[in-house]
Amino acid sequence: ADALQDGTILCNLLNKVQPLGSEIIVYRSKPRVSLWMLENIHLFLQGCLALGVHKSPETLFEPLDLFEKKNMPKVTQQVSSLQHPHFFHVTGDSELVRAQGVCWRNS
């Protein structure tokens, strides 16, 4: 949980599974302030919605769930849901082609 607490690994993960050629999540790579860490977690959650990992905001964990380590089963469930084959397919040369035509950006 400590490794995920600032949101950078989660944002980086979503940048890896985004569609090729689409815009990336812009996040703070070395947040030093709690507010920036929570913002990174929020960006991850919004990216999950954009990818269709979850259909509504009600199914997402809250940024404080991870930041304060309050609801780790829900956090784990959501991160694990990115493994679902629906979000990936592999081409003949084993190049990873990322999720399906969705892009998002921190605005």
Task: Provide a descriptive summary of the structure in words.
The protein is mostly helical and 107 residues long. The protein is built from four helices and two strands, in the order ααααββ. Strands 1-2 form a two-stranded antiparallel sheet. The longest helix has 18 residues, at 34-51. Residues 89-107 have low confidence and may be disordered.
Low-confidence stretches: 89-107
**What strand line-up does the widest sheet have?**
1-2
Number of helix segments? Answer: 4
- Terminal CA distance reads 27 Å
How much β-strand is present in the residues? under 5%
Class from helix and strand fractions:
mainly alpha
Outline type: globular
- How is the biggest beta sheet arranged? 2 strands, antiparallel
Our Rg estimate from Cα atoms comes to 14 Å
In percent, how helical is the residue content? 25-40%
Whole-number mean pLDDT: 75
How many strand segments? Answer: 2
H and E string: HHHHEE
Give descriptors for this structure.
two-stranded antiparallel sheet; globular; 39% helix; 107 residues; disordered C terminus
Topology:
Elements: H1 8-17, H2 34-51, H3 63-67, H4 72-80, E1 89-90, E2 96-97
Antiparallel strand pairs: 1-2
Helix pairs in contact: 1-2
